[in-house]
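Pasting as-is:
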Amino acid sequence: MLLLAALLGGGAAAADQVEVVVYADDAYPPYSYSLNGEARGVYPGILRKAFARMPAYKVQVLPVPWKRGLKMVEMGEAFALTPPYYRPDERPYMDYSAPIFNENVTLFCNDSVAPKGLPSRWPDDYLGLHIGRNTGYLIGGKEFDQALKQGKITLNEARGTEENLRKLLVGRLDCYMNDRHAIQNALARIRTEKAYQKTGNVVEATVISQEFGYLGFTRVDPVRYPFKSEFVRQFNVVLNEMKRSGELEQIAESELRR
């Protein structure tokens, strides 16, 4: 810890701290969501622990609708946003931290359309279906994107996990893609609502990919954020230490059990 403190520049006086705002997805439980206006979940929990060990900075973590947050980063109006997946070609306006947490992107479908028997082929076994995805999420893969362009799959996007799952449960979607924990977490909550207790059976159909979530930083207007390179360096140092100590995994497990 003494070495870590030295790497981070020692103890900065509160008056010398750089004030920073980091935004987090407001509708991606259990990973990142808004509760009474506060950013909560796996990523905000990890970030707050890390930022507390960066004494040169006073960091606020605030919730924001995902699509709006992406636009703010693209325009240089936001310094950083969590948790984007690594998409350098699709988001050339964004730089990335070290990877934070590994997620499994899966496809959940109504039992009536889910392939039976052998493991299914994504996306070949799902042609002709209506697939749901969160607005602004770049998941599904290149073959899926090609099927969309060819009109072989219909994509329906909605702002959050619960909104998409409600559509799935009443048959307005055939399938929905997102992280496994995010889907299971939201399904458990929705199933407690009387209107959804007798709706269709939903099953996990296939794993689409494994993805890391990151802290993404704007590449726009560097004069506005002269502290960026040092902030990123310090964050990555702290993050890697949290991984080595097992603390990051402990925070994630605690949040996933909520």
